[in-house]
């Protein structure tokens, strides 16, 4: 398979590859599309970190309360704290990214409304 081959999404549209997007697209639309795809990847990571956080809480509970041992409890607490920090960073990044995409699209709508036809 060539490196320049374009991979298609579910409905035939190009998926993560900017080179495959139409040259006639407005650059703001192309950037909003790229940021939306990046936000989708961040949401995937957020779901994975939520899973790690849940497992860490279970490990800490088992270690401290159910006789799993102090080492398991401490490991669960440390992993849980790291996962919680990652959740906070990812949620903040996703929220700001959504605001950025919405601002780009609203500025595009405002610009298209103000242009005479």
Contiguous low-pLDDT stretches (5 residues minimum) are: 1-7
- Shape by Cα distribution: rod-shaped
Write down the overall mean pLDDT.
83
Oligomer: single chain
Helix content: over 70%
N-C termini distance: 46 Å
Total domains: 1
Radius of gyration: 21 Å
Which class do the helix and strand fractions yield? mainly alpha
Number of helical segments with 4 or more residues:
2
Q: Biggest sheet, in brief?
A: none
Q: What's the helix-strand series?
A: HH
Q: Give the amount of beta strand, in percent.
A: under 5%
Structure description:
The longest helix has 45 residues. The protein has one domain. It contains two helices and no strands.
Which terms would index this structure?
117 residues, rod-shaped, mainly alpha, disordered N terminus, 72% helix
